[in-house]
Amino acid sequence: xxxxxxxxxxxxxxxxxxxxxxxxxxxxxxxxxxxxxxxxxxxxxxxxxxxxxxxxxxxxxxxxxxxxxxxxxxxxxxxxxxxxxxxxxxxxxxxxxxxxxxxxxxxxxxxxxxxxxxxxxxxxxxxxxxxxxxxxxxxxxxxxxxxxxxxxxxxxxxxxxxxxxxxxxxxxxxxxxxxxxxxxxxxxxxxxxxxxxxxxxxxxxxxxxxxxxxxxxxxxxxxxxxxxxxxxxxxxxxxxxxxxxxxxxxxxxxxxxxxxxxxxxxxxxxxxxxxxxxxxxxxxxxxxxxxxxxxxxxxxxxxxxxxxxxxxxxxxxxxxxxxxxxxxxxxxxxxxxxxxxxxxxxxxxxxxxxxxxxxxxxxxxxxxxxxxxxxxxxxxxxxxxxxxxxxxxxxxxxxxxxxxxxxxxxxxxxxxxxxxxxxxxxxxxxxx
Length: 432
Prior knowledge:
By secondary structure, this protein is α/β, with parallel strands linked by helices. It has 14 helices and 19 strands. 37% of the residues lie in helices and 21% in strands.
């Protein structure tokens, strides 16, 4: 039996809006109220706020290899999409690049306190070894000790090919696993077209059939600028109208972005049981809009938080994006409180993945947590240490990160990989 006790914290954020004092005890990777701690591993949390591990509900890990590319910043999405596609084609997306980019993106995630990443992978060259690509991303997560939700996406792919690939990935990586989640909970498979701007009704329907056969979660992107324009041009309807008709407004679906939504559309999303993912670190700097998070939450929509990928948000720092979410919330409604946004980055994101055991530190939850040192000058004068996590020190990184009861970041360093080697291998692959 493995027992880990986190002791001496300034505060423990147990769940959305619930903060307590005292120890956090993890037995065999699960949070428990009490245990025999005679031979326990003690983690000293003096001067720290302890939170659940953050859950990045929307990332594109491949884009970690394509950050700050000239001509890809502050441009219309109609221009950004082909610019990124050209960069992928020049680099040659294959299992090697997929794995190296995922390794770098996941290493960054852990060093920023993110213990679970949902990777919406959308780039599948014709004839590619798609199972090999998915396996490479999963192996990168396994090596580092991170949890991965690998989303077999599609972007203008042949519908039958995309569905066959999704079926093969499930069979190879999580065979017979309920809900597409591995027995140890470290890997999950989901499906998701990029959106109605790029994918046909047939793609949505065929990937939906794969999801139903295996109990997988479904994810897509909706109501950013480009897909609203294209949907109106191509179909004479808005994206949510199409998604509803195509069977993609349902409780097992999560929609990323939702920048341009009316009150009526919000009501329909809420009634359908769909969850949402806010991605301000992508949408704001690119000028693509700000999701009306307060209105979504008030309507009863579960909202998580994601960074999106390095092609539009050059950092995978979810806590920094939580701070941005606070700052821009007042542009589209009342100011969101820090506790609510931190809840989006933990429990809200986890719920959108169908993983209620993640993003919390309550009995029975997964033993994923972060120790954030709040004893330094950046937190001097902070009245509420939990709120200070978001408002103070924009580049804050955790001192210690634990996933499934195992320390994967210690004193700000990866335990299971050399950060410099991770960077060097990716740079060598893309020759930059």
